[in-house]
């Protein structure tokens, strides 16, 4: 015979000690804060800031660059002249790298959450490849120049997202169909991109190929505006829909059983995720693996269930700022690498680690 303990003797469930609640009585708001996640996020933001300041003072010529303290004095307005001009020239690059890395990471976090697959990211699914196709059509076919390439990249990413959505949504995004369709579309677009470059004249083909590896050079502060606007618009939208997105971590059926309109929610999340990827890709080109790696790194370093969005954004910003600094200074002054070379190397190491980890789990 099984007896049940009286209800009054059952201890109430308690939150882990790392979880605290921040209450704001004036507006009746209560926020759940995970101390470990906050610490990890702050650590990555600090690394991004330190690398960014060092990158602002780094030199790509034979002349020595600025020291870390000297760069800080320029940023605080204590030093002007040539040092200030040097910092001003690279400030848009570092800002765009930080904002773009955060946007790509958020895009990857969205797709990995709703597909429940670590391969769900805009570069694997083909959205960034579609952006590259749109830019190539604008540059090589229509001859619209760099401004046209930005618009073409934006439209190419959005159009690719729509195609993958309508072809891969049968059965929902929670299975492999969505990702497989995206990989197939990406493969076809890569072939088209190769054809466009091969049939173009040498000068235009070289410029297009360089843009396809990621381009953060010769940016101005006006180039940072699209990424600023995208984050300002889409981040509040993501915050509003995030509670429903969390329901997808247990599967589409579980989310539907809890009253979530899965079709509408998936469509909204896809638009937000594509928007993050499109705005960044249109400015700096198709950056690979940041959206793939950042959410997984954030999930592994924090004890929170699922993929933490804020931490993912911090990791993405750190990855892209660091990659830009390495690409610009590693072989300087002889040459400056495209940032895509560095991010591809990091992504290759991550994929190798992922395959080894999965093979270990598969062993009896």
From TrEMBL:
Q: Where does this protein come from, organism-wise?
A: Nocardia callitridis
Gene3D superfamilies in the record, alphabetically?
ABC transporter involved in vitamin B12 uptake, BtuC
Protein name in the entry: Iron chelate uptake ABC transporter family permease subunit
Q: Mind telling me which Pfam families this protein's record contains?
A: FecCD
Family of the protein in this entry: Belongs to the binding-protein-dependent transport system permease family. FecCD subfamily.
Q: Which residues cross the membrane?
A: 33-56, 87-111, 123-142, 148-167, 179-198, 225-243, 264-294, 337-357
Q: Give compartment(s).
A: Cell membrane
UniProt entry keywords in alphabetical sequence: Cell membrane, Membrane, Transmembrane, Transmembrane helix, Transport
InterPro entries associated with the record: ABC_BtuC-like, ABC_transptr_permease_BtuC
- SUPFAM superfamilies the UniProt entry points to: ABC transporter involved in vitamin B12 uptake, BtuC (SSF81345)
Q: How does it sit in the membrane?
A: Multi-pass membrane protein
């Amino acid at each position: 015979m099984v007896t049940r303990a009286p209800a009054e003797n059952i201890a109430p469930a308690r939150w882990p000690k790392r979880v605290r609640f921040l209450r704001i009585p004036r507006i009746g708001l209560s926020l759940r804060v995970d101390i470990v996640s906050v610490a990890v996020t702050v650590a990555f933001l600090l690394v991004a800031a330190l690398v960014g300041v060092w990158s602002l003072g780094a030199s790509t010529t034979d002349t020595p660059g600025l020291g870390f303290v000297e760069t800080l004095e320029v940023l605080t307005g204590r030093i002007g002249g040539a040092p200030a001009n040097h910092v001003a020239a690279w400030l848009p690059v570092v800002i765009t790298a930080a904002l773009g890395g955060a946007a790509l990471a958020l895009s990857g976090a969205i797709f990995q959450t709703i597909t429940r697959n670590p391969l769900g990211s805009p570069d694997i699914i083909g959205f960034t490849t579609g952006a590259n196709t749109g830019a190539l059509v604008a540059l090589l076919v229509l001859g619209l120049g760099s401004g046209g390439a930005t618009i073409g990249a934006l439209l190419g990413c959005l159009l690719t997202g729509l195609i993958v959505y309508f072809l891969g949504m049968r059965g929902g995004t929670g299975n492999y169909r969505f990702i497989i369709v995206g990989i197939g579309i990406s493969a076809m677009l890569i072939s088209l991109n190769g054809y466009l470059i091969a049939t173009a004249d040498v000068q235009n083909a070289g410029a297009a190929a360089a843009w396809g590896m990621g381009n953060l050079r010769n940016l101005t502060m006006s180039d940072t505006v699209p990424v600023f606007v995208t984050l300002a618009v889409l981040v509040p939208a993501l915050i509003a829909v995030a509670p429903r997105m969390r329901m997808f971590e247990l599967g589409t059926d579980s989310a539907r059983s809890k009253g979530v309109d899965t079709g509408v929610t998936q469509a909204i999340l896809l638009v937000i995720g594509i928007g993050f990827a499109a705005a960044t890709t249109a400015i700096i080109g198709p950056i690979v693996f940041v959206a793939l790696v950042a959410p997984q790194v954030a999930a592994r370093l924090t004890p929170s269930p699922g993929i933490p969005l804020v931490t993912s954004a911090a990791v993405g910003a750190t990855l892209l700022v660091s990659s830009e600094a390495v690409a610009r200074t590693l072989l300087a002054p002889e040459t400056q690498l495209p940032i895509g070379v560095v991010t591809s190397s990091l992504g290759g190491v991550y994929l190798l680690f992922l395959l080894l980890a999965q093979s270990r789990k598969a062993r009896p």
